[in-house]
Amino acid sequence: MAIGLAAVTLTAACDASSRHAAGSGASPTTVHPGSGTAPQAGANAAGVYASTSTGNFNAVTRQARPLIYVPESIANRVDVIDPSTFRVIGSYTTGDRPQHVVPAWDLRTLYATNNLANSLTPFDPRTGQISGPNIPVADPYNLYFTPDGRSAIVVAENLRRLDFRDPHTFALQGSTTLTCRGVDHLDFSADGSYLIASCEYSGDVVKVDVASRRVVSYLALPGSSPQDVKLEPAGRIFYVADLNLGGVHLIDGATMRVVGFLRTGFDAHGLYPSRDARDLYVSNRRGQSVSVIDFATRRVVATWNLPGTSPDMGGVSADGRVLWLSGRYNNAVYAISTADGHLIATIRVPNRPHGLCVWPQPGRYSTGHTGVMR
After folding, report:
1. How confident is the model at residue 31 (pLDDT cuts 50, 70, 90)?
2. Rounded to whole angstroms, what are the CA distances from 130 to 98, 146, 177, 234?
3. What is the Cα–Cα distance from 251 to 196, expressed in whole angstroms?
4. Strand 161-165 relative to strand 172-177, pairing
């Protein structure tokens, strides 16, 4: 473990102060084909995110040290940033190709997913340091936990599988083999009975029954490269970012129908609900911007242009004021104001920073990825 300081650039606040301060001024494109697809009144209520509002820490997360965990994917380590100083305070060797840092369902451990090393590296969120030896699992590109806490789901991208494992020992419970290619991200229905996962390379999304671990159906998205997946607060529509098409698909989880598409920006990638669950932040990686979608109206209400950046994966601060994102193609981490989208700080982190985790977060439990809380 080596301790060091990273270069950090701070920028002055912009004059704009509204959450809807639009950076581009472009008119959003919204499509709602068919009938019965318009958002319902109250769709912006916290819903499935009711327990993730500011201050809703439980006894476990109150013990955690506020830190930002950043995997350097091609350097086999995780850097730890102090969000109060915007400086790297630690760097820890993990395993080959760490992709994401993932909170466990019970919030007691964070795991770096080392997919080429076939291992997970555990971190203690109370100290921000590695807490034990690497845990062997096959091809952990990403990691999720079922909402009932009974299973961890290792997203084995190269093996085309979802491996259901014991959430503590990681012993294999069973596997779901997929015919689609490049399974990367997923989210669960409001009741946890099924999940919808994106398959980046074949342009599909897949619905899987959680209890039986069986594939329910596939949905082809022509010309697409689906990325992150996030359920709306109302619990009906899944938002799926699309790299190729530069926007977000709206998919009815019950019927597996596309009910809309919102153009955001080139290489739409990560999806993050605001702390009050009113908005969804979309990181447009090679589009060098972040778009803001209003859940109630299902419209893009702002685009924050961030020239010279490549906003990728991350999360929202516990108080909701800062959106933290890795700059995968610029070897940086960004702290972005959620009030108006101005860049608060740029922190230099080498070697392709990827699935950044902001910790601690409010909520009862984690469903995984970089900190999806419910």
Report:
1. very low
2. 14, 24, 32, 37
3. 10
4. antiparallel
> What is the Cα–Cα distance from 343 to 220, expressed in whole angstroms?
36
Q: Per-residue confidence at 42, pLDDT binned at 50, 70, 90?
A: very low
Domain that holds residue 328: 8-359
Nearest to 343 by CA among 331, 353, 354, 335: 335
276 found inside a domain = yes
Closest CA to 231 of 153, 166, 171, 147: 147
What is the number of alpha carbons within 13 Å of residue 313 lying toward its C-beta?
Answer: 26
The answer to whether residues 331 and 343 touch, using CB atoms and an 8 Å cutoff, is no
Contact 32, 259 (CB under 8 A): yes
Asked whether residue 25 is assigned to any structural domain, the reply reads yes
DSSP calls for 34-50: SSS-SPPTTTTS-GGGT
Q: Is residue 239 part of a domain?
A: yes
Lowest mean pLDDT among 38-42, 90-94, 111-115, 169-173: 38-42
Render 236-271 in DSSP notation, one character per residue. Answer: SEEEEEETTTTEEEEEETTTTEEEEEEE--TTEEEE
For residues 42 and 133, which has the higher predicted lDDT (pLDDT)?
Answer: 133
Looking at residue 31, which CATH number applies to its domain? 2.130.10.10
Beta carbons within 10 angstroms of residue 106's beta carbon: 14
Contact between 360 and 66 (Cβ < 8 Å): yes
Distance CA 40, CA 298 (A): 10
pTM (predicted TM-score): 0.91
Structure tokens at 302: 């702002």
Q: What is the DSSP letter of 296?
A: T
Number of domains forming the structure of the chain: 1
- Let me know if residue 226 belongs to a domain: yes
